[in-house]
Amino acid sequence: MVIMSVARSVLLFLLAAVAEIGGAWLIWQGVREQRGWLWIGAGVVALGAYGFVATLQPDAHFGRILAAYGGVFVAGSLAWGMALDGFRPDRYDLAGALVCLVGVGVIMYAPRA
Length: 113
Hints:
By secondary structure, the chain is mostly helical. It has one domain (about 1-110). The protein has four helices and no strands. Helix 1 (about 1-30) runs antiparallel to helix 2 (about 35-55) and helix 3 (about 60-85) runs antiparallel to helix 4. The protein is flat, with a radius of gyration of 15 Å. It holds the Pfam family UPF0060. Belongs to the UPF0060 family.
């Protein structure tokens, strides 16, 4: 039961990351790369989806969910940049992302009384 809850939570964090990072990237492309309003509109929709997906986390504490998601966002943003923009993180980027993901684990999955 605990493993399924953690697996669901991790999947929701990944979906939220795709929605938020993807939405921000679409808006970036629409504005900075002059791809137009369709890209910007799709980004706004994706950002709205992110807000919804975050509410599906099994933990009921908004602050905890958003704090933990911050770590997922850091690592996910680097991965997105690598996959779609040719960004190559250095060892400090990777170390920072790892620290953030460890923080996610502690915040979300540490045993609590």
